[in-house]
Design brief:
12 helices; Phosphorylase Kinase, domain 1; 18 strands; alpha+beta; seven-stranded antiparallel sheet; 41% helix
């Protein structure tokens, strides 16, 4: 089928597919619009990766804009999602959990559509496309110039642990992360590891290949990286140490060194800026606004607001007095689960540079003070300590100190030398955690509330 005919078929397919998407999308873990009515769909791009009318399974790549009403704004929210739709006459029993539904009208009437990533034949096709760079319609497949050739025939399997995205593992050699809710512009999970690899920093798995769409804006859709199969994340290692009654200071010190090495490499590879006094005041004001909104959502915060606000006021005062801060590209969502330790060679790696997926891409790509990442990791030590009974605050405090010492040993600057900014970012993170836990995991609310109590007492 010609590209023009393929596009006509795909455009005609969307109206017949929409009723099925209304039911299927809200059930997906990566769908961000749960709890709100779906108002409609519009097609951004459509590409047949495998013919939809052939003898075997077809594969349709869609970028679909999903409209949902926003009660706080005059216009509906419109998020763009990446869908890979498999098409068959009948669905094998092994693919029954991937079912989206049966089409009764449109160009594929009488056929069955399903989540294509669960079909090994279709998942294998994605790797084949990445092995041979080139374009197909609006899609562009590319490879890192220094990466070794990708071997053929690696068996795919889905990684069930993903939430905001989807991942496929190929033969325990590579992992392909597919971004589901996508935004125009370079995704930091490709941009930052690529910058680190080109700078010679091996603290993040170097991208092997990736694919993008130009429809007409550029979208990063997926990144292929080495799969670190002999690694365990620092969160699991921390919980094991707590269960065994062991110190985690050595590992925390190493994590501090790794964080500093990543920050140093990013500062060398990408532009850095100085936050002016006015920008620093704006940063503090945004944190204060988030605190006020959080207190409205979680009344337990209200008694702490004046003392927590003091942390942000201290940063604003420094800004008014002309203090500036260096800002650069950072990880943006650093915690123990984002650091992997290899049991074979003992090396540490940092993963998942996407930042907080709920935030706009422009905000995630904005240069920020490095203490933002430090604050995220410090909060993660608290979370780990709180999972153990009885709670061991001393364990967390020793980890926090070792982490900062490791950071200083690698770059010469101790994060604790910027106490106002570090306290502000840690307070901002704890406030975010309170809202999240109150909404999603009420049993975990005491974890960030303990930090709120500690941070408020420091003021």
């Amino acid at each position: 089928m010609s590209e023009a005919a393929s596009t006509r078929t795909s455009v005609a397919l969307l109206p017949s597919l929409a009723p099925l998407l209304h039911q299927w999308l809200p059930r997906q873990r990566w769908f961000a619009g749960k709890g709100s009515r779906l108002a409609g769909f519009s097609l951004v791009s459509a590409t047949e990766l495998l013919p939809l009318h052939g003898p075997g399974p077809g594969l349709l790549h869609l970028l679909v804009r999903v409209r949902q009403p926003d009660l706080t704004a005059p216009h509906a929210i419109a998020d763009c999602y990446q869908l890979l739709i498999g098409v068959r006459e009948t669905l094998p029993r092994s693919l029954a959990p991937a079912l989206i539904g049966h089409l009764s009208e449109g160009p594929l009437a009488g056929r069955t559509v399903y989540e294509g990533l669960h079909d090994p034949r279709l998942a294998a096709l994605l790797l084949e496309r990445l092995r041979t760079p080139g374009s197909l319609g609006p899609l562009r497949f590319d490879r890192f110039e220094s990466a070794p050739a990708i071997p053929p025939g690696l068996a795919p399997r889905p990684l069930d642990a993903e939430q905001s995205n989807s991942s496929l593992i190929y033969g325990d050699t590579y992992i392909l992360k597919l971004f589901r809710r996508i935004h125009p512009g370079p995704n930091p999970d490709l941009e930052l590891p690529l910058a680190l690899a080109r700078a010679g920093c091996d603290r993040a798995p170097a991208p092997v290949a990736w694919y993008e769409a130009h429809a007409p804006e550029p979208f990063t859709l997926g990144v292929l990286q080495p799969y670190l199969r002999d690694s365990r994340d620092a969160w699991r290692l921390a919980l094991d140490a707590l269960a065994d009654g062991r110190s985690f200071d050595h590992e925390a010190h190493a994590l501090g060194r790794v964080t500093a090495e990543v920050h140093t490499a990013l500062a060398d590879a990408l532009p850095t800026v100085k936050l002016s006094g006015a920008q620093t005041e704006h940063l503090a004001a945004a944190m204060a606004q988030r605190l006020d909104a959080a207190a409205q959502a979680v009344p337990a915060l209200v008694p702490y607001v004046p003392r927590l606000r003091a942390a942000f006021d201290a940063v604003a005062v420094l800004g008014r007095h002309g203090c500036t801060w260096a800002a650069q590209r950072v990880h943006g969502d650093l915690h123990l689960g984002q650091a992997l330790h290899c049991s074979t060679d003992g090396a540490w790696s940092v993963i998942d540079f996407e930042g907080e997926p709920a935030k706009p891409l422009t905000e995630r790509r904005r240069p920020q003070p490095t203490v933002r990442d430090v604050a995220g990791m410090l909060r993660s030590f608290d979370y780990a300590a709180r999972t153990h009974r009885p709670w061991n605050p001393v364990w967390a405090e020793l980890c926090r100190a070792a982490y900062c010492e490791g950071y200083a040993a690698a770059c010469g600057t101790d994060p604790r030398e910027e106490p106002e900014m570090l306290r502000a970012y840690e307070t901002d993170k704890a406030v975010y955690e309170v809202v999240y836990e109150a909404r999603h995991r009420p049993d975990w609310l005491p974890v960030p509330m303990a930090a709120i109590d500690r941070l408020a007492a420091a003021h």
